[in-house]
Amino acid sequence: MIGLHHYLVVSAVLFALGMFAIITRKNGVAILMGIELVLNAANLNFVAFSRYVWGGLTGQVFAIFVIMLAAAEAAVMLAIVIAVYDRFQSIDVDRVDSLKG
Amino acid sequence: MDLATYVLIALFAPLAGATVQIFLGRRLPRHGDWLCVGVLFVSFVASIPTFNAVWANPAFKLQILSEWLTLGSFGIPLGLQVDGLTGIMLTVVSFIAAFIHLYSVGYMHGDPRYSRYFAYLNFFTFSMLGLVLADNFFLIYVFWELVGLSSYLLIGFWFERPAAANAGKKAFIVNRVGDVGFFVGILLLWTQLGTFRFEEVFKGIAAGQMAGPLLTVTGLCVFLGAVGKSAQFPLHVWLPDAMEGPTPVSALIHAATMVAAGVYMVGRVYPVFTPDAFVVIAYVAGITAFFAGTIALTQFDIKRVIAYSTLSQLGYMMLGLATGGYVAGLFHLVTHAFFKALMFLAAGSVIHALHTQDLREMGGLRAKMPVTFWTMMAGSLALAGVPPFSGFFSKDAIIGATLGFVMAHPQHLLLALFAVGGALLTGLYAFRLMFLAFTGAPRDREKHHHAHESPPVMTVPLVVLAVFAVGAGWGGWFERLVRPPVELPHGPAGAHTLALALSLLAAGLGILLAYWTYVVGKISAGRVADRYRPVYTLLFNKYYVDELYAAGVVRPFLALTRGCAAFDLGVIDGFVNWCGRFTRGVSRVQGWIDFRIVDGAVNLVGNAIRAWGAVLRLVQTGVVQNYILVLLGGVLVILLLKVL
Amino acid sequence: MPMQNVLTWMIFAPVAGAAVVLLLPRGRDELVRWISLLATAVPLALAFWVYANFDRTSPGLQFVEHYAWIPAFNIEYFLGLDGVSAPMFLLTTLIAFLALVASWGIKEGVKGYFCLYLLLEAGMLGVFAALDFFLFFIFWEVSLLPMYFLIGIWGGPEREYAAIKFFLYTLFGSVLILLAMLALYFANEPHTFDMTKLIAANKQYGIAFQLLVFIALYIGFAIKVPVFPFHTWLPDAHVEAPTPISVILAGILLKMGPYGMLRVSWPMLPEALKVYAYPLAIFALINIVYGALVAMAQRDFKTLVAYSSISHMGFVLLGMCAIGPQGLSQAGVNGAILQMFNHGTVTAMLFLLVGVLYDRAHHRVIEDFGGLGVQMPVYAGVATVAFFAALGLPGLSSFISEALVLIGAFPAYRTLTIIAAVGIIITAGYWLWTLQRVFLGPLNPKYATLPEINGRELVTLVPLGALVLFLGVYPMPVLDLIRASADQLIALVGPLP
Predict the structure, then answer these.
(1) Contact status, residue C292 vs residue C333, Cβ threshold 8 Å
(2) Whole-model pTM?
């Protein structure tokens, strides 16, 4: 029988993979993908907790919000990536260190 | 027209001439000489009614009064007055000036500044007439200075010659010395009596508002002005140098009129002088009369000889005034004006013909220049005081007054010696000049050969003046018109007879000596000079007065000015600059303190913070992933702590 | 043009001119000159109107403008003229106009020069018209600053030294005036800068207060005159300044010193004046004699004129402090104010003349000239008039004022006046000597090609020369302006105790 714990484990794995991608990848788009993973891990948690713990549809509604948000965020992020490419001729985030102290 | 209008015409015609001439002279036909000569004759003609008026009534008095400036209670009056003395002076001055203007047309012919010359000469005449007419001290001072100005301009007329430029400057400055004394005298009178007008001053003195030593000092201050203007010892040094000017100028200004202004002024303000002051004046005058005569004996420049004789005669006039011969002194002024102007013009005629002023290059001119010779002879006889020439009457009266004064005050015997000795010298030097120039063999054949009589425009004035030089002493006209303004003491009886004898004797002896020496040759001038070499050298160098002034006054004074300038630059400005440098030094030290210590502390704080910043900035990599990693680490640590 | 504000119009016409000049584009030098000329011509034209309408019988203030300005401190915009200020105020417009014509030859930095020049004129006019002490002080400083730049930028080789010396010296004086001004301000209740009120209250000031404030004011004003020993900025400033600026400096700026004394010190602190009168007369005498002595030793023509100014200003000071038992002398005070005016015209001529010569020969060493009377007869003629005016020849203006001063001072200080009169001999000495060295004697062949004085230079000199001659013969047109106010001043100071 698949229970809450399974969902949580899958979610944690997704989060960890997403986090790993965010921290390690040099490519801006890849980082963006990592962020998508992290968001979806959170969605999975919302839905799982809603189903097994609280009942009702609150978690599902939140998950839909997050999906919407992620879409908007991806649009903004892609625009930023294009702007960065314009400015630095690269989307390697290591080279975008203008804020270095 | 009333008399006042005539007087104003006589006064202002020359001024108008001068004004037109200075601006337009060069553009007028003949450079305007006809205009300037013309206005002078206008002036002379306009002065005749005045003379007639005073002749008809010797007590006649005309006053033209106005105010120059008023400041509440203080005011400076502007007034002209005509009385007997003024009437004579007005006529005589305009008359002589008119003929000297005429003479100048010939003498100055072809000069590059011909028009300017006449402008100056017109201006001089205006100033001189103003001086004569002034009825108050302030106005007489004004014209006094203005005649000084015209004298300056005319002495330095040929200013390209350094000697002329120097002489003009010297004349003005020496006169200024006298003028300051005059001005101080005027100030003293004004302070004590509160007025500048002659009448009121005399009234105040007569009423005893001013007396004693103060009045004596005041009188001497006023007299100092006359000492300068009339070239009395010790301010006589400018007059011989003034001969650098054109000869008609010497005749008009430095013989006939301006130098006599001092005498005229003393006569005009006669009541200002106390008996004590007159004693001083008498000695100054006596010294001038005698010593100038001795210098004249040794000079070879024809104009300088006449100049020293002018000095001597001016001394006589003053002496007459100072010893109670009021009428005599002023009379001598008038006769001297005629015969001395004549002598200068005649000398000018000689210079014009020979182009030299040195007596040693003349001789034998009598035949070549008969008019000049005979007119000059008339002048010399008048100068020597030979009867019946005009100079005899006036000089005799002066000697009479002096002897009378000496008889009354025997302690002043020296004055009588000066007077009689001077008369002897006069005869001697006057005829030394005559004989050297006109008789004997010509000493410079070349010059003699080219000599010729002057044109009529020059000889006519000579003849006219000669007439007056001969006859101006006749008839007692002067005594009729001029009366002493104060009661004069009558000298002892017999003084005049004695004077007559002595002066005739002295003049005769002088002329005889000259004759023996320069015509007969019984006495050799050269031998006498060799025998008394030191005396001769002293005389020839004019008693070294110029050198004394140069060494004792001018050079120390210039040193003083240089000292003052050095003091100004070194000490005062030095102190100012020192203040500047000191302030800069202080500020440099302060700057160092500020820079090193105060600013150092501030910098230290800044540097410390910067050092810390340099360490901390390492954290700021600019790579967002690093931040996330650290964030993650942080979250993990918090989680770990939570779990533990 | 509303004539009740005529003084404001006169003071601010040059300011408006300066603004227009500033707005012109670069390179329009000729236009700048003409606009500046217009801006100085306006006050000059109005000056004639003021002269014609000046009430000569009234000792009081005329053409008064009185507005509140900074009410919190009782500072007012208060202008007016009386006999003490009117001659100098009117002369300022004339000299500024003529010196502007003389500025035509300025070739570098034309815009800046004329702009500063116009500001300077406004400042000077303001000083002579201001009746509020604060306003007076502001105008005083306004006239100081442009001068600094005009000397420091357009001057001769040592210009920076001279400009800084001038500026610091005068600023030092200004500080003392400022202190005295504040002391007077706080001595009155309610506090006021209104000069008429400060004068009306002159009986209230204690003697110690008067003595102290008088000294501060005296030093402040004395630096401007300049009085020995504060005078050494003057020769430097004059020598380095361009000709028109020297003219302004000597013709007008120096007069601000004695004017300040007559406007402020004398009526406000009469008791102190009575105490100090004798020492002041001694300082005046030192100015006369010492200035003349130093002038005589100068080799530079312009320095000589500068020192002669010191000497002639001594007469102003002497006349002002001629106080006897009856109080100030009428002749002395009138003579002093007239001497301010006359010295303004004469010394302006002298500096213009030096400028004419310098423009041609490019140096000013007196001994190096000689015989110019042959080469430049018209120039020599004008110069002779100016020289004789300076040495006090009767018939030329300075004589009357100097004679009045001596007449006024004599009853009060006999010995000093006699020594001052001796100073006149020295004056004659150095002027005639200079005349001889420059114009007489044989012509130096080096200068056989010097051109005669030109039309523009004559335009600047002839009006002054005519004025000198006219006032020498008939001084009443100026004395008329002065005398009523001088009488009032004498009454204000009162007799000696």
Answers:
(1) no
(2) 0.85
